[in-house]
Amino acid sequence: MKVIIAEKPDQGATLASIFRTKKRQGYIEILPNDLFPDGAYMTWAIGHLFQLAPPERYRPEWKRWTLGTLPIIPERFEYEIEKAKAKQFKVVKELLRKPEVTEIIHAGDAGREGELIVRNLIRLSGVNKPMKRLWLSSLTPKAIEEGFRRLLDERTTRPLYEEAYARACADWLVGMNASRVYSLLLKERGMNDVFSVGRVQTPTLALIVRREREIEQFRPEPFWEVVASFVIGDKRYEGKWTDKNGQTRLGDEEMAKKIAAFCQGKRAEVADVHTERKTYQPPLLFNLSTLQATANKLYRFSPKKTLDVLQSLYQKGIVSYPRSDSMHVTKGEAETFPAILQKLSSFPAYASYFPLPQPSILQNKRYVNEKKVTDHYAIIPTEQVVDPEKLSADERKVYDLVVRRLIAAHHQAAVIDYTTVTTLVDGRARFVSKGRQVVEEGWRAVIRPHEEEKDAALPLLERGEAGEAAAVKVKEGKTEPPKRYTEGELITLMKTAGKFLDDEELEKVLAKTEGLGTEATRAAIITMLKERKYIEVKNNLVYATDKAKVLIEALGGTILASPEMTAKWEQRLSEIGEGSASPAAFMEQVKKLAQKVVADAIAAAPNWNFRGVDTASIQRTRKKKTMGEKLGPCPLCGGTVVDKGTLYGCDQYAKTKCPFTISKRILGKSISAANVKKLLAQGKTNVIKGFKKGEKTFDAILVWDENEKKLSFQFPKR
């Protein structure tokens, strides 16, 4: 008999769905079959069942936040069970200890965190039985069956567990000490708030604050440009006056007016026509970061929302593993594309792109490159193709992006001619005109560019043609500050943080490790920065708060605010994951770093200067009395829905990223805790009167739709 342990309940249900089963409390019994002649038990964690123990677990005096107790450095790290999840741990432990159970199948997500979650559960259950590893990149029935038939030896992925464990302990050690020392020292300066400091979140925040300062310090300067409208025969076009250095902007308004007056009505001759043809290959397939950035640009989806929607599509078995960092596939996946595309061609949304110019990309190394596939291949639609019209609105948008990338990869390159025309007025004044002409639409017919193209097509002009400057005008403008990051650009910024390092070798490390954070954690880091009041997002633009400015100012040039530390850590952690470095040696270095962080902060504090920042406003807000009140079981993951102050949400979000939330205000109407309790217990609320939509008001019952996994309105009978 075997016990299979998944990472989450819905994942366990999906893995068991290809067998005949009986549902039990906390697990699923798989009946005897070809793969499991004696049957099997399918059970699950609920994300992280365990968390690293708090400081007071090691020493009672570490509970109080005082400078005298720092640094906090446990001799060995301990885990403790989350109270809300103790029941599920008991179920798993009892299954593992059954005498008839002779083997364990680790079926957590195929990555570092999945490795850590399930191995921790097994280790803390006190069971030591033979183990195999299920490693999947999609959850289609075919992929699940093939995965169970080719289980990995657990030793293959054990270094990933050691890497994840070292990462978690190191982050705890530095985060705990840095957060306490800066919070205590800043409290002495009148700011009674918790200042969270972390290896990834803080360098990311430093980049945001840097941009905030650039915007604040920017002073706009006026400039003027001279624009002429040329008429040559029946051809009309515009050009900008340009000096010998290629500059179009003038800092002197009078000079601009003199140039315009001089050129008005004068003879204009085409001095030069230069056309450059550029070929654009179809874009690479998506990894998580590029998909998050694209969804944010097109639909203003937050990175977290994109990941949540993608996870939903993955659980349905219609896209591959969502947290992939690769933009390539292996030959095995490429061989499935013709069948997938054939199914997609039957849907009206995609029918016009078929037949495909390139029926197969199997030999195209731009997409099919096994050397560039890490733990997972690119995000692609699986053979379990669905009509996008049958998905929810958000799922349809994300699925459509994934599908179009795959279709575009089978189309020709786009070819565009860029033309530059130089026109001389009165033989002296030089004007430049730019235009573009699409020669071959290619893949752009499938994926339209996100921005409008600036340059329109120019008329067909030849050198020596002459006419006149029919109208010449002066345009005034002002220099603009750097633009704020969008949430999508923040994801890209985290990936490319290496360009902010002066050390070339460390820059290479961050480039190799894909910058700050991982595909799986970047969305959570951005969400964390919001929740901790370091950033605000307005109209999809990211603003640094005064609290963020204070922290980054206090950190100054320390390594905590630089991508440098992350680069060094990622280098060593990846070596641990590859089995070539010692976790113990790494942790000894981290302990020394924790001591240095505390000492450096105390030494620097007397010189902190927060001029220009509203430090008085940085105070901890008191939680409402209802905060933390338990309201009922989460319908998505089995966790507990609690009052979170501004909304009702699942208490497992920090660990599993469970997306279940209910706003406290819907269409202008407050939603009471009593109604949420009834919704969670019975599937619907009482009649709530006074919802407002535009000028209309209506009464309705809030209902949990089990199929769509979302709230909907039910209207009472009159």
UniProtKB/TrEMBL annotation:
E.C. no: 5.6.2.1
SMART domains: TOP1Ac (SM00437), TOP1Bc (SM00436), TOPRIM (SM00493)
One GO term of the biological process aspect: DNA topological change
One GO CC term on file: cytoplasmic replication fork
Occurrences of domain Toprim (ranges): 1-140
Annotated protein name in UniProt: DNA topoisomerase
Keyword Isomerase belongs to the record: yes
Domain Topo IA-type catalytic: 157-598
Enzyme class: isomerase
Keywords assigned by UniProt, alphabetized: DNA-binding, Isomerase, Magnesium, Metal-binding, Topoisomerase
CDD domains: TOP1Ac, TOPRIM_TopoIA_TopoIII
Coiled-coil region(s): none
SUPFAM superfamilies the record matches: Prokaryotic type I DNA topoisomerase
PROSITE patterns with a match to the protein in the record: TOPO_IA_1 (PS00396), TOPO_IA_2 (PS52039), TOPRIM (PS50880)
InterPro entries: Topo_IA (IPR000380), Topo_IA_2 (IPR003601), Topo_IA_AS (IPR023406), Topo_IA_cen (IPR013497), Topo_IA_cen_sub1 (IPR013824), Topo_IA_cen_sub2 (IPR013825), Topo_IA_cen_sub3 (IPR013826), Topo_IA_core_domain (IPR023405)
Family as reported in the entry's similarity comment: Belongs to the type IA topoisomerase family.
Record-linked NCBIfam families: PRK07726.1, topB
GO molecular function: DNA binding; DNA topoisomerase type I (single strand cut, ATP-independent) activity; metal ion binding
Reaction(s) catalysed (UniProt annotation): ATP-independent breakage of single-stranded DNA, followed by passage and rejoining
Key word Metal-binding present: yes
